[in-house]
């Protein structure tokens, strides 16, 4: 009886509609049927969050005894649709801090269901269970790697990490535009520094190695399983420079020396609009000199059979045709391992420019960035002749969006803003939709679809 009652509560809860969305929802509740309800006081917020959590735990506790693992896993992800809207009451930076803390403490669902086989692929000799990744910026200090990978991402990128701790720009520095699924931020590489991040990644790496050594389960197949240095998924480390540093190359080299041993791939971030002068490093000569120094620092270190981690560069979407040609030439000449396209934009495309939030300085991310970043992705794929792996980033909020990036030339894709708005439920949804897109058009794998728009 208790189990049936709990399932009834659960079904009713699942069909209850939320009037606003996710971590990044509006500061104000949406108008419903012409009414504009007021924001509850702090005590009411606490009671709402506590009540919702207790209700879910009670229902889930009874439900788990009657459900198989896959069904219960699906329930947990669906249940986040009920809790997630409560983050909309909070200041954006408080909501973000709370979300990272929840993931770090394991208070998020863990994906137990296998990914569709059509989504599996190999890049840089690393096997990805799916091509959907979490972009840098969410977990800047590598606090929640295990929890985030457990959500079902194929890979997670932490950072940007600076050599010396710095607070970033004055607050407020995050501004929501939920009507368009957009965010403007001017955080400015707020980072605890490479020492703090190295300690966390070192502990995670040690835990992974210990699990491999002490595991009593022996695979019946010689096939390499998906996963990397941090666990079931691939871990990228995004490197930045300190705001006051006069030697950018020295900052990136220091990051390589300290963090590369824990990374499945490394990223040189020269494209954030929130660090003065950083984007000037995208110039042909500056970029070439920088990459050569960072590559040399990586290659002079001792590596095992797997070799050094791949080195990528993350570029901006606000580049001219000439800029893109220069970057492509440098990437091909130096045999760069990959490019991430793209970071946030300083432009304000319609309809964002018509909103008051557009007056805030900083980088724009989310849905309005999709077309701009995808066009840059197409250009770079053609300029590099498909010889360099590209990661498509910017405005992805559905499996169809991810598919468009892949057809435009991306072998992997990343998201952030949509995840901030929609929460954990978005991840299995995107993977299922992407698999459907591939099957619909007759592709047997993600690899077959890469750059399909040009064939």
Describe this structure in words.
- By secondary structure, this protein is of the alpha/beta class.
- The chain is 40% helix and 12% strand.
- The protein is built from 14 helices and 13 strands.
- An eight-stranded parallel barrel has the order 3-4-7-8-9-10-12-13, surrounded by four helices.
- Helix 9 (321-333) links the parallel strand 9 (311-315) and strand 10 (338-341).
- Helix 7 runs parallel beside helix 8 (284-299) and helix 11 (399-407) packs across helix 13 (426-440).
- The longest helix has 23 residues, at 42-64.
- It is globular.
- The chain starts with a helix and ends in a 6-residue tail after the last helix.
- Residues 1-43 have low confidence and may be disordered.
Key words describing this protein structure:
three-stranded antiparallel beta sheet; eight-stranded parallel β-barrel; 455 residues; disordered N terminus; globular; alpha/beta; 12% strand
